[in-house]
Amino acid sequence: MRTIAQGQIESAEGIDMEPNDSAEKPGTSRAAAKAARREQLLEVAKTLYARHGFHGVRLDDLGKGAGISAPAVYRHFKSKEAVLEELLVGISEYLNSGGESIVARHEDGEAASALIELIDFHVAFAMSEPELIRIQDRDLAALPEASRRMVRRLQRSYVSQWAEVVSRARPAWSLDAATVRVHAVFGMINSTPYQARRSSAEVVGVELRAAARAALGIA
């Protein structure tokens, strides 16, 4: 049987310091601490998955990176697949909802203005989240099938938003042609920040925006 003294020693060593789910209420300091720990685990996972690949990272590695034990990780995520799911589904939802908001704001305005804002939005994402882009490119297949389908559906929706705006801005282009251009622009934007590490972020951002505008006919 574990004594009180043993429990105090374990807590001091960080082995069992995570809050118990059943004792939490929204808005409490304990709930806030748990939310902060969850975000910390996601940040650790983002770094490790990008560096070593999903299959090269163990749950123990995530716990160690966050300063907690592997069993404590289970209080936040049931598996490392669940961590990957939150990262990739989450970023797909973010991009899709962000695109929807931009398109809605410009629904009655000039398509070119909407397109410029979409470009700025996606460049900002790519510049701030190169690890997530790398993880998605390499480890999407590791997601459970249902989550993988959800990511693909959200991606198609996001591409469709862009393509419809491009076809409005460039009426001479068919929707298929606009879609091809959008995919090409995504490929350029998504790959550049991770590869151009020797250039300043400002230079990379400026050049990406200019190249994307030129590719979509609004230079």
From TrEMBL:
Domain HTH tetR-type: 35-95
Residue range(s) of DNA binding per entry: 58-77
Top-level taxon of origin: Bacteria
Keyword vocabulary terms for this entry: DNA-binding
Residue numbers spanned by region Disordered: 1-32
One Pfam family recorded for the sequence: TetR_C_24
Any GO MF annotation of the entry: transcription cis-regulatory region binding
Name the UniProt record assigns to this protein: AcrR family transcriptional regulator
